[in-house]
Amino acid sequence: MAEQYRADVLVSCLHDRAPDLLPALQKEVEQRGLAGEVRVVEAGCRGFCSLGPVLLIEPEGTFYVGVQAADVPELVEETLVKGRVVERLTYREPTTRKRIPRYEDIPFHRQQQRIVLRHCGLINPTSIEEYIAVGGYQALGKVLSEMTPEQVIEEVKKSGLRGRGGAGFPTGRKWEAARKARGDIKYIVVNGDEGDPNCFMDRALMEADPHSILEGAIIAAYAVGAHHGFFYIPFEHTLSVKNVRTAIEQAREYGLLGNDILGSGFDFDVEIRIGAHCFVGGESTAVMAAVEGRASEPRSKYVHTTEKGVYNRPSCLNNVKTLSIVPEIILRGADWYASIGTEKSKGTTVFSLAGKINNVGLVEVPMGITPRELVFDIGGGIPAKRKFKALQIGGPSGGFLPESLMDMPMDYETLDQAGAMMGTGGVIIADDHTCLIDTVKYFLEFLQEESCGKCTPCREGLPIMHAILTRFTKGEGSVADLEVLESLARSIKVTSLCGLGKSAPNPVLSTLRYFRDEYLAHIEQKKCPAGVCKALVTFVINDNCTGCAACVRKCPQNAISGELKQPHTCLLYTSDAADDLLCVDLGGRR
After folding, report:
1. Is the separation of the CB atoms in 52 and 66 below 8 Å?
2. How far apart are CA 579 and CA 571, in angstroms?
3. Lowest-pLDDT range, 466-470, 544-548, 583-587?
4. Which of 409, 456, 462, 472 is positioned for an S-S bond with 477, CB 3.0–4.6 A?
5. Which range is least confidently modeled, 126-135, 150-159, 241-250, 458-467?
6. Closest C-alpha to 282, from 211, 386, 410, 196
7. Secondary structure of the chain: what % helix, strand, coil (to 5)?
8. Which band of pLDDT confidence, cut at 50, 70 and 90, is reported for residue 583?
9. In the Cβ-directed half-sphere of 89, how many Cα atoms lie within 13 Å?
10. What single-letter DSSP state applies at residue 258?
11. β partners of residue 546
């Protein structure tokens, strides 16, 4: 916080929810004569997605959620003028219902360890001065003045940093391979593509802290001997493009990009390449094809991209989260970073929590955290007192983990052994009202649409698996179909060309491994245990009907009849009528 201000009001998570909130705050502060004392800043994403817009008032640390323009006069009067907390705007803990006014005391934040997200929501992302004020570009200065490229690579290798884009390949080894690759021209490629549904970590980081990514990219370029780079971002992420472009322009003005950076003799510059948003587009060779202006299609990797990548020249691609960590490793040391996490999975990882969980949003935690800690301690548990059923991790091609694995460590190796994967960190929680067969069908529908169609196993195999799952949800499948599904999934996993196809069967294989009973219920009993698959559910009025007629008023199909204060009746329907009639939760179920 700048010295002349006694308070900073940091506004986050606007995203069109309350476009008039920031102007209202600025106007109210000015009208009350507080403009010289209080600074209002639109900061980046804080991760509390389900509660936005949110306000953090520093230095007191008062935190408000769901703030609207109508709340501004009371907020300014009570908090900024009188120093009192507006309790109704504070965070309410989901289980205890206790109000928590200070940000540092909220379990969602208190149990995180923020390295990637260290500046998110705390600084103005469009101000290089604020980034420098919190230590930005010090690591770059240290690298260019005190370290050789080989020393930088060795420090990153020693830290154990692995790529955060999904594959988890050791970053130092990739940099070393790129440095040793033959060729006078080499490229750095910054991967800002993020195609997983329910994943928004990369976008949030680019919006909230673009300079940390840029600093990491310049350090990477110095290490591998590259003098030009490409920052790849999907065109839909308009705010990411805007803030990254601003960061690049500011870095050039400050002599941190271009020729003779900081008087070191090292030259490096970067340009933004905007591409189409697609799931397979985040694959490394697909990104490089897009950078060249071609369709985002992957290719075989018998020749590594560190040898022949963009324009057939040595290219080193890193995810935005990976690069944002690098400055901290340089400043705080490899030993510090290696002390966090597990033996083989070092540091922290960012998860996006979605689905049936109270605290939807972004969290950064040490590698090795358990699903139980993630879901119940940080995520706030399951809404509406429902029962936890499964955790799906790794995006649409990730695996489902049952309650029996809630205490296993979440790291690359353990998740792989369990039939899941870390992926980009997308986590979806399912409760006991979630049909996993229907959910897997949804993921396969997404994956077959996103497949580039270049290889036969993925192009032809995914639609077949989807068709089998569709039959299950309609009560038309057989045990023989189940055997075909499992065999086909294993074949696709082995024979597909790229990571999309190889990982696409994970949702099927993991649910067959841990939730086979649910498949058999759909096949043998013609029953959906979760009550989701319409063709397998019959709705009736239960025996406790008092004739209150509430269901009559709500039924969209007018299928309920009866006299007032007398038991009512509901039209029973079979699978043939399922598409024409849906009376969900109006009477008894099943």
Report:
1. yes
2. 14
3. 583-587
4. 472
5. 458-467
6. 196
7. 45, 15, 40
8. very low
9. 26
10. B
11. none
Phi then psi for residue 233, to 5 deg, are -140, 135
Q: Determine the Cα–Cα distance for residues 414 and 428; give it in Å rounded to an integer.
A: 18
d(CA 21, CA 16): 10
Q: Dihedrals φ, ψ of 382, to 5°?
A: -95, 135
Token couple for 301: 């990797």
Cα(495)–Cα(52) distance, integer angstroms: 44
Structure tokens that stand for 67 in this block: 């703030």
Judging by DSSP bridges, how do beta strands 388-393 and 426-431 pair with one another? antiparallel
CA 448-205-79 angle, 5° bins:
130
Strand locations in 475-551, DSSP E? 539-540
The type of residue at 437 is I
Rg of the chain over all Cα atoms, to the nearest angstrom: 26
Residues sharing a CB contact under 8 Å with residue 488, sequence separation 6 or more, in sequence order: 461, 464, 465, 505
| Max intra-chain CA distance, the chain | 89
CB-CB contact of 449 with 472 (8 Å): no
Kindly state the tokens that stand for 209: 């802290």
List, in sequence order, every residue forming a beta bridge with 354; answer none if it has no partner.
428
Task: Give phi and psi for 547, each to the nearest 5.
Answer: 75, 30
Q: For residue 387, give the DSSP letter.
A: P
* Cα(392)–Cα(475) distance, integer angstroms: 25
What is the phi/psi pair of residue 39, to 5°?
-110, 130
Structure tokens at 499: 């990571």
Give the span between the Cα atoms of 590 and 570, in whole angstroms: 12
Nearest alpha-carbon partner for 60 in 78, 73, 44, 45: 78
Range list of H helices, 302-455: 320-332, 334-338, 371-372, 412-417, 436-450
b vs e for 10-19, b when ≥16 Cβ sit within 10 Å of the residue's Cβ?
bbbbbeeebe
Provide the 3-class DSSP secondary structure of residue 340. Answer: coil
For the record, the structure tokens of 328 come out as 């901290």
> Could you tell me the two tokens for 184?
């006078």
Are the beta carbons of 437 and 511 closer than 8 angstroms?
Answer: yes
Say how many Å lie between the first and final Cα of the chain, rounded.
Answer: 59
Percent of the chain with pLDDT over 70: 93
The DSSP code sequence of 232-251 is: EEETT-HHHHHHHHHHHHHH
Q: Within 225-332, where are the H helices? A: 238-253, 284-291, 320-332
Assigned token pair, 7: 């308070």
- DSSP class of residue 174 equals H
The pTM of the full predicted model, rounded to 2 decimals, is 0.87
* Strand-pair category, 426-431 with 348-355: parallel
Residue 404 CB partners (closer than 8 Å, separation 6+): 514
Average model confidence (pLDDT) across the chain: 89
